[in-house]
Design goal:
The chain is an all-alpha fold. It has a single domain, classed as Ferritin. 74% of the residues lie in helices and 0% in strands. The chain contains five helices and no strands. Helix 2 packs antiparallel against helix 5 and helix 4 runs antiparallel to helix 5. It starts with 8 loop residues before the first helix and ends with a helix. The model has no long low-confidence stretch (mean pLDDT 97).
C-alpha cells in the first residue's frame, strides 16, 4: 500500500538514511555503555555502575524509537549488529579502559550522537519531515545533557 504522509519517496529515503546513521551511533554507544556498566572498577564503582545502567537503558529505548521511525517512513530498519554498526563512527574498545577513560569515551560518544542528530535534523527539515525533526532534536538534547553530566564526573 502506498505511503501518503506528505513526503515523496526520495524525501522519505533520505530521512530514513539519516535515521540509520543515528541508529548506528546509538547502537554503538549502547553496546559500549553496557560493557562499561559490567566492567567499571574503582572507588566510584557503585555510582558509575548505576549511572551507566541509566544511560544504556535510555539508549536502548531510543534504538526502538529510531527504528520504528525508519519503518514509518516505509523502509526496513537494520536487523543485525553488523548492519547497524555500518553507519557508526563510534568504535568499540579493545580491552577495558579505566573509569576515567570510560567516562571520557562516553562523552565523545554522546557528542557523536549529537552531531549525527543535528545533521539528520537538517536533512529532515529539507524534507519537511517534522516528526523526524522532533526525534532528532530530542536525541541531540538528551545526548548533550548526558555528555555534560559525564564531563562533570571528570
Amino acid at each position: 500500500m502506498p505511503i501518503d504522509i506528505g513526503m515523496n519517496d526520495k524525501a522519505r529515503q533520505s530521512s530514513a538514511q539519516a535515521l540509520r546513521v543515528l541508529l548506528g551511533e546509538t547502537y554503538a554507544l549502547y553496546v559500549k555503555t553496557h560493557g562499561y556498566h559490567w566492567n567499571v572498577t574503582g572507588p566510584r564503582f557503585n555510582s558509575l555502575h548505576t549511572m551507566f545502567m541509566t544511560q544504556y537503558t535510555e539508549l536502548w529505548t531510543a534504538l526502538d524509537e529510531i527504528a520504528e521511525r525508519i519503518r514509518a517512513l516505509g523502509h526496513f530498519a537494520p536487523g543485525s549488529s553488523s548492519e547497524m554498526l555500518e553507519e557508526a563512527t563510534i568504535k568499540p574498545d579493545n580491552g577495558v579502559p579505566d573509569a576515567e577513560a570510560m567516562i571520557s569515551n562516553l562523552v565523545k560518544g554522546h557528542e557523536a550522537i549529537s552531531r549525527a542528530a543535528k545533521i539528520g535534523l537538517k536533512v529532515a527539515e529539507e524534507n519537511n519531515d517534522i516528526v523526524t525533526v522532533d526525534l532528532m532534536t530530542r536525541r541531540a538534547d538528551i545526548s548533550e545533557k548526558t555528555a555534560w553530566m559525564l564531563r562533570a564526573n571528570l
